[in-house]
Write a structure and sequence with these properties.
Elements: H1 3-31, H2 36-45, H3 53-60, H4 64-76, E1 80-84, E2 92-96, H5 98-119, H6 124-145
Antiparallel strand pairs: 1-2
Helix pairs in contact: 1-5
Length: 146
């Protein structure tokens, strides 16, 4: 069997697993009235004093163009605000408003409970095995990009 034939089923399984997880997660997020990128931003800003758009983009992996639009829509709904950076006037801090903090306090624990339900039948040993396998894969790619 060629090297490509050996790894392609692994890639396919990884993609299918990610797609299944994403569908399971996104359905719950949408049921709570948010899009997945909106949830990602609210969850990332929760329990923080806020962060710059650059920091938020790095932590959420949302591209700069998409991030601006999502933040704009969250601001229109009164959940986030942009405030001047304390030491760099060229920069703004994006943070949750009090209404955004209330939203975070409602949707984040509910979504974590939803995800926990999806994993409920897995044993601690299974979690450890999956984490090990995923870290091994991650390390293969980190070595390859170094």
């Amino acid at each position: 069997m060629s090297q490509a034939a050996e790894f392609l089923p692994t890639v396919q399984a990884l993609v299918q697993c990610y797609q299944a997880f994403e569908a399971y997660s996104a359905a719950d997020i949408r049921a709570q009235g948010l899009t997945p990128p909106q949830f990602d931003i609210v969850a990332t800003l929760g329990n923080t004093p806020g962060m710059t758009a650059t920091e938020l983009g790095e932590k959420t992996l949302i591209t700069k163009g998409t991030l601006t639009g999502v933040v704009d829509r969250l601001a229109e709904r009164g959940w986030v605000e942009r405030v001047a950076h304390g030491s760099d006037r060229r920069c703004q801090i994006i943070r949750l408003t009090p209404a955004g903090e209330a939203l975070f306090a409602r949707v984040f624990p509910a979504h974590i409970a939803h995800l926990a339900a999806g994993f409920a039948s897995a044993s601690a040993a299974e979690h450890a095995r999956w984490q090990d396998a995923l870290r091994t894969l991650e390390n293969l790619f980190r070595k390859g990009s170094a």
